[in-house]
Amino acid sequence: MPEPLYLRDERPPVALAxxxxxxxxxxxxxxxxxxxASFRKWGLFGFSVFGLGxxxxxxxxxxxxxxAVRQWVMEASTExxxxxxxxxxxxxxxxxxxxxxxxxxxxxxxxxxRHFSEPRRNPTWVGAT
Length: 129
Hints:
single chain; 4 helices
């Protein structure tokens, strides 16, 4: 049985960063895994992202220290996701968000993938020189 979904009283940020699974995080298999885990937990299909505040990645890494060991990030415009029918919910602790999909299927994955940038170097990566 899914656990209750509590949403923070927070407006979506302008940009979202996808950081947790590296360069292949938007592959169909990875999105399917994330959607299935989200469905087991909350009863909805989605995947995790983090909000980028005014302080950018320097601010984000203070909230999400694991970001420092992730070499690659991808960004998406919150407005683009919302206007294309992908709700963005303020789940878990700030700055965590969930991008919601109607179904965990390849056509939906392809649509949502279009909103994210190509992988780029994480400016807070500890291996950066």
